[in-house]
C-alpha cells in the first residue's frame, strides 16, 4: 500500500503573536493570511523560528515565491511582504 503525503498551512489560530514593545515593531507584513507587525530588519529565519517552534520541516513562500532553507538567514523581510509557512503532513 502506497502512502500519500500532503502539505498543510500551519494553523492561523495557533501561531503566536509577538509581544509588543514600544518602538520595536516597525513593519507590517502578512503571515499565513494574517496581518502582523514585526521588528524592522527581521530575517525570514527568525520569523520561521517564531512561528514554527516545533522545528518541523516547512516550506516558506515569500510573495508567492519559494525560498530555499539555506537562504532564510540572509533574506530580510520588507514592509508589505506576504509570507506563507507550510508544514509537511504525512498520511497513509
Order of helices and strands: EEEHEEE
Structural class category? mainly beta
Instruction: Report the helical percentage.
Output: under 10%
The CATH homologous superfamily is named: Beta-grasp domain
What's the count of strands?
A: 6
Largest sheet: 6 strands, mixed
- Count of helices? 1
How many domains? 1
The general outline is globular
As a percent range, the share of strand residues is 35-45%
Please compute the radius of gyration using only Cα atoms: 14 Å
Per CATH, what is the topology? Ubiquitin-like (UB roll)
Q: What is the overall pLDDT average? A: 79
- Assign the CATH architecture: Roll
Q: Uncertain spans, ≥5 residues at pLDDT below 50?
A: 1-5
Distance between the termini: 9 Å
For the record, the CATH class is Alpha Beta
How is this structure best described in words?
The chain is mostly beta strands and 92 residues long. The chain has a single domain, classed as Ubiquitin-like (UB roll) (Roll). The chain is 9% helix and 38% strand. The chain contains one helix and six strands; from the N terminus they run βββαβββ. It has one helix spanning 44-51, and strands at residues 5-9, 25-31, 34-39, 58-62, 65-67, 82-90. Strands 1, 2, 3, 4, 5 and 6 form a six-stranded mixed β-sheet that branches. The longest helix has 8 residues, at 44-51.
